[in-house]
Design goal:
Layout (H helix, E strand, L loop, with lengths): L6 H20 L3 H51 L4 H11 L4 H31 L3 H11 L1 H18 L3 H25 L4 H26 L7 H36 L2 H14 L9 H8 L4 H38 L6 H27 L3 H52 L14 H7 L3
Helix pairs in contact: 1-2, 2-4, 2-5, 2-6, 2-7, 2-8, 3-4, 3-6, 3-9, 4-5, 4-6, 4-9, 6-7, 6-8, 7-8, 9-14, 10-13, 10-14, 11-13, 12-13, 13-14
Length: 451
Protein backbone atom coordinates (compact mmCIF):
# COMPACT_ATOMS: atom_id res chain seq x y z
CA UNK A 1 0.00 0.00 0.00
CA UNK A 2 2.93 2.32 0.58
CA UNK A 3 3.67 2.43 -3.17
CA UNK A 4 0.23 3.79 -4.12
CA UNK A 5 0.06 7.54 -4.64
CA UNK A 6 -2.70 9.30 -2.75
CA UNK A 7 -5.49 10.69 -4.98
CA UNK A 8 -4.59 14.26 -4.04
CA UNK A 9 -1.07 13.77 -5.49
CA UNK A 10 -2.11 12.21 -8.80
CA UNK A 11 -5.39 13.95 -9.62
CA UNK A 12 -4.23 17.52 -10.45
CA UNK A 13 -1.57 16.40 -12.93
CA UNK A 14 -3.89 13.82 -14.47
CA UNK A 15 -6.69 16.34 -14.74
CA UNK A 16 -4.45 18.88 -16.44
CA UNK A 17 -3.26 16.23 -18.88
CA UNK A 18 -6.82 15.19 -19.64
CA UNK A 19 -7.84 18.80 -20.22
CA UNK A 20 -4.88 19.33 -22.53
CA UNK A 21 -5.66 16.28 -24.66
CA UNK A 22 -9.34 17.18 -24.68
CA UNK A 23 -8.53 20.65 -26.04
CA UNK A 24 -6.01 19.19 -28.49
CA UNK A 25 -8.60 16.79 -29.89
CA UNK A 26 -11.40 19.35 -30.08
CA UNK A 27 -9.00 21.95 -31.60
CA UNK A 28 -11.51 24.74 -31.07
CA UNK A 29 -8.71 27.26 -30.50
CA UNK A 30 -6.14 28.42 -33.01
CA UNK A 31 -3.13 27.28 -30.96
CA UNK A 32 -4.47 23.76 -30.42
CA UNK A 33 -5.55 23.56 -34.06
CA UNK A 34 -2.01 24.46 -35.16
CA UNK A 35 -0.47 21.87 -32.82
CA UNK A 36 -2.94 19.23 -33.95
CA UNK A 37 -2.15 20.03 -37.58
CA UNK A 38 1.58 19.58 -36.96
CA UNK A 39 1.04 16.21 -35.25
CA UNK A 40 -1.25 14.90 -37.98
CA UNK A 41 1.14 16.09 -40.69
CA UNK A 42 3.93 14.19 -38.93
CA UNK A 43 1.71 11.12 -38.77
CA UNK A 44 0.94 11.54 -42.46
CA UNK A 45 4.63 11.63 -43.33
CA UNK A 46 5.15 8.43 -41.33
CA UNK A 47 2.20 6.74 -43.04
CA UNK A 48 3.48 7.76 -46.48
CA UNK A 49 6.92 6.42 -45.60
CA UNK A 50 5.39 3.07 -44.63
CA UNK A 51 3.24 2.83 -47.77
CA UNK A 52 6.23 3.81 -49.90
CA UNK A 53 8.34 1.03 -48.41
CA UNK A 54 5.52 -1.50 -48.87
CA UNK A 55 4.90 -0.65 -52.52
CA UNK A 56 8.61 -0.54 -53.34
CA UNK A 57 9.30 -3.94 -51.79
CA UNK A 58 6.12 -5.65 -52.98
CA UNK A 59 6.07 -4.30 -56.54
CA UNK A 60 9.79 -4.11 -57.24
CA UNK A 61 11.55 -1.35 -59.13
CA UNK A 62 9.64 -1.83 -62.38
CA UNK A 63 6.26 -2.17 -60.72
CA UNK A 64 6.90 0.86 -58.53
CA UNK A 65 7.74 2.85 -61.64
CA UNK A 66 4.48 1.84 -63.34
CA UNK A 67 2.55 2.68 -60.16
CA UNK A 68 4.14 6.14 -59.97
CA UNK A 69 3.50 6.85 -63.65
CA UNK A 70 -0.13 5.71 -63.40
CA UNK A 71 -0.99 7.88 -60.39
CA UNK A 72 1.05 11.02 -61.07
CA UNK A 73 -1.32 12.75 -63.47
CA UNK A 74 -4.42 12.09 -61.36
CA UNK A 75 -2.65 13.69 -58.40
CA UNK A 76 -1.60 16.72 -60.41
CA UNK A 77 -5.04 17.24 -61.98
CA UNK A 78 -6.83 17.00 -58.63
CA UNK A 79 -4.84 20.00 -57.43
CA UNK A 80 -5.38 21.81 -60.73
CA UNK A 81 -9.16 21.32 -60.44
CA UNK A 82 -9.39 23.44 -57.27
CA UNK A 83 -7.02 26.29 -58.17
CA UNK A 84 -8.52 29.46 -56.76
CA UNK A 85 -11.63 27.60 -55.63
CA UNK A 86 -10.21 26.18 -52.42
CA UNK A 87 -9.17 29.60 -51.10
CA UNK A 88 -12.44 31.14 -52.31
CA UNK A 89 -14.56 28.54 -50.48
CA UNK A 90 -12.60 28.90 -47.23
CA UNK A 91 -12.72 32.68 -47.15
CA UNK A 92 -16.40 32.99 -48.11
CA UNK A 93 -17.49 30.27 -45.65
CA UNK A 94 -15.52 32.07 -42.95
CA UNK A 95 -17.17 35.39 -43.74
CA UNK A 96 -20.72 34.09 -44.42
CA UNK A 97 -21.14 30.73 -42.63
CA UNK A 98 -24.91 31.01 -43.03
CA UNK A 99 -24.39 30.33 -46.76
CA UNK A 100 -22.08 27.33 -46.30
CA UNK A 101 -24.42 24.92 -48.08
CA UNK A 102 -24.61 26.97 -51.27
CA UNK A 103 -20.89 27.73 -51.20
CA UNK A 104 -19.97 24.06 -50.80
CA UNK A 105 -22.25 22.88 -53.59
CA UNK A 106 -21.01 25.57 -55.97
CA UNK A 107 -17.39 24.79 -55.10
CA UNK A 108 -17.87 21.06 -55.65
CA UNK A 109 -19.75 21.62 -58.90
CA UNK A 110 -16.99 23.86 -60.26
CA UNK A 111 -14.23 21.49 -59.12
CA UNK A 112 -15.91 18.45 -60.68
CA UNK A 113 -16.50 20.33 -63.92
CA UNK A 114 -12.85 21.36 -64.15
CA UNK A 115 -11.65 17.88 -63.17
CA UNK A 116 -13.83 16.29 -65.85
CA UNK A 117 -12.58 18.61 -68.59
CA UNK A 118 -8.92 18.18 -67.67
CA UNK A 119 -9.18 14.42 -67.16
CA UNK A 120 -10.92 14.12 -70.54
CA UNK A 121 -7.99 15.85 -72.21
CA UNK A 122 -5.50 13.76 -70.21
CA UNK A 123 -7.33 10.57 -71.23
CA UNK A 124 -6.84 11.43 -74.90
CA UNK A 125 -3.21 12.54 -74.60
CA UNK A 126 -2.15 9.99 -71.97
CA UNK A 127 0.17 8.05 -74.33
CA UNK A 128 2.12 11.27 -74.89
CA UNK A 129 2.04 12.26 -71.20
CA UNK A 130 3.41 8.92 -70.03
CA UNK A 131 6.33 8.87 -72.44
CA UNK A 132 8.37 5.68 -72.15
CA UNK A 133 6.03 4.30 -69.48
CA UNK A 134 3.03 4.34 -71.84
CA UNK A 135 2.94 0.67 -72.82
CA UNK A 136 2.85 -0.65 -69.24
CA UNK A 137 0.84 2.07 -67.51
CA UNK A 138 -1.60 3.44 -70.12
CA UNK A 139 -4.78 1.59 -69.10
CA UNK A 140 -4.09 1.98 -65.39
CA UNK A 141 -3.30 5.69 -65.74
CA UNK A 142 -6.54 6.32 -67.63
CA UNK A 143 -8.60 4.43 -65.05
CA UNK A 144 -6.88 6.23 -62.17
CA UNK A 145 -7.99 9.64 -63.47
CA UNK A 146 -11.23 9.16 -61.50
CA UNK A 147 -9.10 9.77 -58.40
CA UNK A 148 -8.82 13.44 -59.39
CA UNK A 149 -12.58 13.90 -58.88
CA UNK A 150 -12.67 12.32 -55.42
CA UNK A 151 -9.56 14.16 -54.25
CA UNK A 152 -10.91 17.51 -55.50
CA UNK A 153 -14.16 17.01 -53.55
CA UNK A 154 -12.11 16.18 -50.45
CA UNK A 155 -10.14 19.41 -50.81
CA UNK A 156 -13.35 21.48 -50.96
CA UNK A 157 -14.72 19.63 -47.91
CA UNK A 158 -11.55 20.42 -45.98
CA UNK A 159 -11.87 24.13 -46.74
CA UNK A 160 -15.49 24.18 -45.54
CA UNK A 161 -14.39 22.64 -42.23
CA UNK A 162 -11.56 25.16 -41.90
CA UNK A 163 -13.85 28.06 -42.77
CA UNK A 164 -16.31 26.97 -40.08
CA UNK A 165 -13.52 26.72 -37.51
CA UNK A 166 -13.85 22.91 -37.31
CA UNK A 167 -10.13 22.36 -37.34
CA UNK A 168 -10.20 18.73 -36.21
CA UNK A 169 -12.36 17.78 -39.19
CA UNK A 170 -10.17 19.90 -41.50
CA UNK A 171 -7.00 18.18 -40.29
CA UNK A 172 -8.62 14.74 -40.54
CA UNK A 173 -9.71 15.51 -44.11
CA UNK A 174 -6.03 15.82 -44.98
CA UNK A 175 -4.86 12.81 -42.94
CA UNK A 176 -7.57 10.14 -43.36
CA UNK A 177 -6.98 9.40 -47.07
CA UNK A 178 -3.36 8.46 -46.31
CA UNK A 179 -4.28 6.44 -43.23
CA UNK A 180 -7.08 4.47 -44.93
CA UNK A 181 -4.88 3.93 -47.97
CA UNK A 182 -2.29 2.35 -45.66
CA UNK A 183 -4.93 0.10 -44.06
CA UNK A 184 -6.11 -1.16 -47.45
CA UNK A 185 -2.55 -1.61 -48.70
CA UNK A 186 -1.50 -3.64 -45.66
CA UNK A 187 -4.67 -5.75 -46.00
CA UNK A 188 -3.81 -6.61 -49.61
CA UNK A 189 -0.24 -7.41 -48.57
CA UNK A 190 -1.39 -9.79 -45.85
CA UNK A 191 -3.81 -11.48 -48.26
CA UNK A 192 -1.00 -11.93 -50.78
CA UNK A 193 -2.84 -9.96 -53.48
CA UNK A 194 -0.74 -6.81 -53.73
CA UNK A 195 0.14 -5.99 -57.32
CA UNK A 196 0.18 -2.69 -59.23
CA UNK A 197 -3.56 -2.72 -59.89
CA UNK A 198 -4.37 -3.51 -56.26
CA UNK A 199 -2.03 -0.77 -55.05
CA UNK A 200 -3.83 1.80 -57.21
CA UNK A 201 -7.24 0.56 -56.04
CA UNK A 202 -6.04 1.08 -52.46
CA UNK A 203 -5.22 4.73 -53.22
CA UNK A 204 -8.66 5.38 -54.71
CA UNK A 205 -10.39 3.34 -52.01
CA UNK A 206 -8.67 5.21 -49.19
CA UNK A 207 -9.80 8.55 -50.64
CA UNK A 208 -13.40 7.40 -51.11
CA UNK A 209 -13.62 5.90 -47.61
CA UNK A 210 -12.27 9.14 -46.13
CA UNK A 211 -14.99 11.14 -47.90
CA UNK A 212 -17.68 8.79 -46.59
CA UNK A 213 -16.28 8.93 -43.05
CA UNK A 214 -16.34 12.74 -43.01
CA UNK A 215 -19.71 13.13 -44.74
CA UNK A 216 -21.83 13.14 -41.53
CA UNK A 217 -19.66 15.87 -40.01
CA UNK A 218 -19.86 17.87 -43.24
CA UNK A 219 -23.66 17.72 -43.37
CA UNK A 220 -23.81 19.30 -39.91
CA UNK A 221 -21.80 22.28 -41.17
CA UNK A 222 -23.82 22.92 -44.32
CA UNK A 223 -26.24 25.70 -43.46
CA UNK A 224 -28.39 28.13 -45.38
CA UNK A 225 -30.88 27.86 -48.24
CA UNK A 226 -30.13 26.63 -51.72
CA UNK A 227 -31.76 29.74 -53.14
CA UNK A 228 -28.48 31.57 -52.60
CA UNK A 229 -26.51 29.37 -55.01
CA UNK A 230 -26.52 31.93 -57.83
CA UNK A 231 -24.98 34.60 -55.61
CA UNK A 232 -22.59 32.04 -54.08
CA UNK A 233 -21.48 31.02 -57.57
CA UNK A 234 -20.81 34.60 -58.58
CA UNK A 235 -18.87 35.31 -55.39
CA UNK A 236 -16.72 32.18 -55.70
CA UNK A 237 -15.99 32.69 -59.38
CA UNK A 238 -15.10 36.35 -58.88
CA UNK A 239 -12.60 35.52 -56.13
CA UNK A 240 -11.31 32.33 -57.75
CA UNK A 241 -10.63 34.14 -61.01
CA UNK A 242 -8.20 36.41 -59.19
CA UNK A 243 -6.71 33.73 -56.93
CA UNK A 244 -6.40 30.97 -59.56
CA UNK A 245 -3.24 32.30 -61.26
CA UNK A 246 -1.34 32.21 -57.94
CA UNK A 247 -2.44 28.62 -57.32
CA UNK A 248 -1.56 27.63 -60.89
CA UNK A 249 1.86 29.24 -60.59
CA UNK A 250 2.40 27.54 -57.22
CA UNK A 251 1.40 24.21 -58.75
CA UNK A 252 3.72 24.83 -61.67
CA UNK A 253 6.60 25.72 -59.37
CA UNK A 254 6.11 22.62 -57.20
CA UNK A 255 5.98 20.36 -60.25
CA UNK A 256 8.56 22.23 -62.34
CA UNK A 257 11.49 20.10 -61.23
CA UNK A 258 9.54 16.86 -61.80
CA UNK A 259 8.39 17.82 -65.29
CA UNK A 260 11.51 19.63 -66.52
CA UNK A 261 14.40 17.65 -65.05
CA UNK A 262 13.32 14.29 -66.45
CA UNK A 263 14.52 15.13 -69.99
CA UNK A 264 17.37 17.36 -68.79
CA UNK A 265 19.21 15.14 -66.30
CA UNK A 266 20.70 11.65 -66.63
CA UNK A 267 19.02 8.96 -64.52
CA UNK A 268 21.72 8.94 -61.81
CA UNK A 269 21.65 12.72 -61.34
CA UNK A 270 17.86 12.74 -61.36
CA UNK A 271 17.89 10.10 -58.62
CA UNK A 272 20.18 12.26 -56.48
CA UNK A 273 17.92 15.28 -56.91
CA UNK A 274 14.71 13.36 -56.12
CA UNK A 275 16.18 11.90 -52.93
CA UNK A 276 17.38 15.32 -51.78
CA UNK A 277 14.08 17.02 -52.67
CA UNK A 278 11.85 14.45 -50.95
CA UNK A 279 13.95 14.46 -47.79
CA UNK A 280 14.06 18.26 -47.59
CA UNK A 281 10.24 18.54 -47.62
CA UNK A 282 9.94 16.67 -44.34
CA UNK A 283 10.66 19.95 -42.52
CA UNK A 284 7.27 21.29 -43.66
CA UNK A 285 5.51 19.09 -41.09
CA UNK A 286 6.83 21.31 -38.28
CA UNK A 287 4.51 24.18 -39.23
CA UNK A 288 0.70 24.05 -39.19
CA UNK A 289 -1.38 23.79 -42.35
CA UNK A 290 -1.70 27.17 -44.08
CA UNK A 291 -5.49 26.82 -44.24
CA UNK A 292 -5.69 27.24 -40.47
CA UNK A 293 -3.84 30.56 -40.62
CA UNK A 294 -5.95 31.78 -43.55
CA UNK A 295 -9.12 30.81 -41.68
CA UNK A 296 -7.97 32.74 -38.59
CA UNK A 297 -7.14 35.90 -40.59
CA UNK A 298 -10.23 35.89 -42.81
CA UNK A 299 -13.11 37.99 -41.57
CA UNK A 300 -10.79 40.11 -39.40
CA UNK A 301 -9.99 43.76 -39.97
CA UNK A 302 -6.69 44.63 -41.63
CA UNK A 303 -4.92 45.44 -38.34
CA UNK A 304 -5.96 42.16 -36.71
CA UNK A 305 -5.00 40.14 -39.81
CA UNK A 306 -1.59 41.86 -39.88
CA UNK A 307 -1.08 41.13 -36.17
CA UNK A 308 -1.82 37.42 -36.67
CA UNK A 309 0.45 37.32 -39.71
CA UNK A 310 3.36 38.98 -37.91
CA UNK A 311 3.09 36.58 -34.97
CA UNK A 312 2.84 33.53 -37.25
CA UNK A 313 5.81 34.76 -39.27
CA UNK A 314 8.01 35.15 -36.20
CA UNK A 315 6.98 31.75 -34.84
CA UNK A 316 7.71 30.11 -38.19
CA UNK A 317 11.18 31.64 -38.44
CA UNK A 318 12.01 30.86 -34.80
CA UNK A 319 10.91 27.23 -35.11
CA UNK A 320 12.93 26.59 -38.26
CA UNK A 321 16.29 28.03 -37.13
CA UNK A 322 17.15 25.17 -34.70
CA UNK A 323 15.62 22.59 -37.06
CA UNK A 324 17.82 23.68 -39.95
CA UNK A 325 20.91 23.70 -37.73
CA UNK A 326 20.13 20.17 -36.49
CA UNK A 327 19.46 19.02 -40.05
CA UNK A 328 22.82 20.27 -41.27
CA UNK A 329 24.55 18.42 -38.42
CA UNK A 330 22.86 15.08 -39.13
CA UNK A 331 22.29 15.12 -42.89
CA UNK A 332 25.33 13.01 -43.86
CA UNK A 333 24.47 10.38 -41.24
CA UNK A 334 20.81 10.25 -42.28
CA UNK A 335 21.71 10.02 -45.96
CA UNK A 336 24.15 7.16 -45.34
CA UNK A 337 21.88 5.14 -43.03
CA UNK A 338 18.66 5.39 -45.02
CA UNK A 339 19.87 5.70 -48.62
CA UNK A 340 23.42 4.39 -48.68
CA UNK A 341 26.86 5.86 -49.28
CA UNK A 342 26.19 6.24 -53.02
CA UNK A 343 23.77 9.07 -52.19
CA UNK A 344 26.25 11.17 -50.21
CA UNK A 345 26.54 13.34 -53.30
CA UNK A 346 22.97 14.47 -52.55
CA UNK A 347 23.97 16.13 -49.25
CA UNK A 348 25.03 19.46 -50.78
CA UNK A 349 21.89 19.57 -52.93
CA UNK A 350 19.80 18.63 -49.91
CA UNK A 351 21.15 21.58 -47.91
CA UNK A 352 20.23 24.04 -50.65
CA UNK A 353 16.75 22.54 -50.90
CA UNK A 354 16.31 22.69 -47.11
CA UNK A 355 16.95 26.44 -47.19
CA UNK A 356 14.54 26.74 -50.13
CA UNK A 357 11.85 24.76 -48.31
CA UNK A 358 12.09 26.98 -45.23
CA UNK A 359 12.01 30.24 -47.21
CA UNK A 360 9.12 28.88 -49.27
CA UNK A 361 7.16 28.15 -46.10
CA UNK A 362 7.90 31.65 -44.74
CA UNK A 363 6.73 33.16 -48.04
CA UNK A 364 3.55 31.08 -47.90
CA UNK A 365 2.72 32.54 -44.48
CA UNK A 366 2.92 36.05 -45.93
CA UNK A 367 0.91 35.08 -49.00
CA UNK A 368 -2.01 34.15 -46.71
CA UNK A 369 -2.14 37.78 -45.59
CA UNK A 370 -2.54 38.93 -49.20
CA UNK A 371 -5.51 36.56 -49.59
CA UNK A 372 -7.14 37.52 -46.31
CA UNK A 373 -7.12 41.26 -47.12
CA UNK A 374 -8.52 40.73 -50.61
CA UNK A 375 -5.37 41.04 -52.76
CA UNK A 376 -5.20 37.64 -54.53
CA UNK A 377 -4.32 39.22 -57.89
CA UNK A 378 -1.11 40.74 -56.53
CA UNK A 379 -0.24 37.41 -54.96
CA UNK A 380 -0.81 35.77 -58.36
CA UNK A 381 1.52 38.21 -60.12
CA UNK A 382 4.29 37.50 -57.63
CA UNK A 383 3.80 33.76 -58.07
CA UNK A 384 4.01 34.21 -61.84
CA UNK A 385 7.33 36.03 -61.56
CA UNK A 386 8.66 33.23 -59.37
CA UNK A 387 7.57 30.48 -61.78
CA UNK A 388 9.03 32.26 -64.83
CA UNK A 389 12.37 32.73 -63.08
CA UNK A 390 12.48 29.10 -61.88
CA UNK A 391 11.74 27.73 -65.35
CA UNK A 392 14.44 29.85 -66.99
CA UNK A 393 17.08 29.09 -64.36
CA UNK A 394 16.40 25.36 -64.34
CA UNK A 395 16.65 25.12 -68.12
CA UNK A 396 19.92 27.10 -68.05
CA UNK A 397 21.58 25.71 -64.92
CA UNK A 398 20.48 22.06 -64.74
CA UNK A 399 22.26 20.85 -67.93
CA UNK A 400 25.47 22.61 -66.86
CA UNK A 401 25.55 22.02 -63.09
CA UNK A 402 23.26 19.01 -62.69
CA UNK A 403 21.15 18.62 -59.52
CA UNK A 404 22.89 21.56 -57.82
CA UNK A 405 21.95 23.86 -60.70
CA UNK A 406 18.32 22.79 -60.42
CA UNK A 407 18.31 23.35 -56.66
CA UNK A 408 19.89 26.80 -57.01
CA UNK A 409 17.31 27.75 -59.64
CA UNK A 410 14.48 26.76 -57.30
CA UNK A 411 16.08 28.66 -54.40
CA UNK A 412 16.52 31.84 -56.47
CA UNK A 413 12.85 31.84 -57.45
CA UNK A 414 11.75 31.44 -53.83
CA UNK A 415 14.03 34.27 -52.66
CA UNK A 416 12.60 36.61 -55.29
CA UNK A 417 9.06 35.68 -54.29
CA UNK A 418 9.75 36.33 -50.60
CA UNK A 419 11.41 39.70 -51.33
CA UNK A 420 8.47 40.81 -53.49
CA UNK A 421 5.90 39.70 -50.90
CA UNK A 422 7.65 41.53 -48.09
CA UNK A 423 8.14 44.65 -50.21
CA UNK A 424 4.46 44.56 -51.13
CA UNK A 425 3.48 44.73 -47.47
CA UNK A 426 4.73 48.32 -47.46
CA UNK A 427 4.11 49.44 -51.03
CA UNK A 428 0.71 47.84 -51.73
CA UNK A 429 -0.87 46.73 -48.44
CA UNK A 430 0.29 49.78 -46.43
CA UNK A 431 1.32 47.49 -43.58
CA UNK A 432 4.54 48.22 -41.67
CA UNK A 433 7.29 45.65 -42.14
CA UNK A 434 7.14 43.16 -39.24
CA UNK A 435 9.78 42.38 -36.68
CA UNK A 436 11.26 38.98 -37.60
CA UNK A 437 12.43 37.79 -34.17
CA UNK A 438 10.39 36.76 -31.14
CA UNK A 439 10.15 39.07 -28.15
CA UNK A 440 8.59 38.79 -24.71
CA UNK A 441 5.56 40.72 -25.93
CA UNK A 442 4.75 37.84 -28.32
CA UNK A 443 4.05 35.53 -25.38
CA UNK A 444 0.69 37.18 -24.82
CA UNK A 445 -0.34 36.49 -28.41
CA UNK A 446 0.84 32.89 -28.13
CA UNK A 447 -1.11 32.37 -24.93
CA UNK A 448 -4.21 33.94 -26.48
CA UNK A 449 -4.10 31.40 -29.30
CA UNK A 450 -4.71 28.64 -26.74
CA UNK A 451 -7.54 30.45 -24.92
Amino acid sequence: MGDVLPPSAATPATARLQRFFGKLISADRLGYAALQSILLQAAGVLVNFVTGVITARALGAEGRGVYAAATAWATLLSSAAVVGLSDAVLIHVRKTPEHARALFLCGVLAALLLATLMCGAAFVFMPLLLGSHGAAALDLARATLILAHFTAVGMIMRQVFAGQGRYLAANLAAFLPFALHAVLLISCLLLGRLDVTAAIVCVVGGTVLALLALLPALLKELKGPLTGMRQAWRSLVAFARRAAPADLFALGTSWADKLILIPLLPAAQLGIYVVAANLSRILIIFTPATGILLSAMSGQNRERSAHLHHLALRLTIASYIPLVALTFLLDRLVMTVFYGAEFLAAVAVFRVLVVEAVLNRVATVTSQLYLSVGRPTLNSVIRGVELALVLVLMVVLAPRYGPMGAALGLLAGTIVRLVLLWAGLITHLSIPFPRLWLARSDLAGMRAAFK
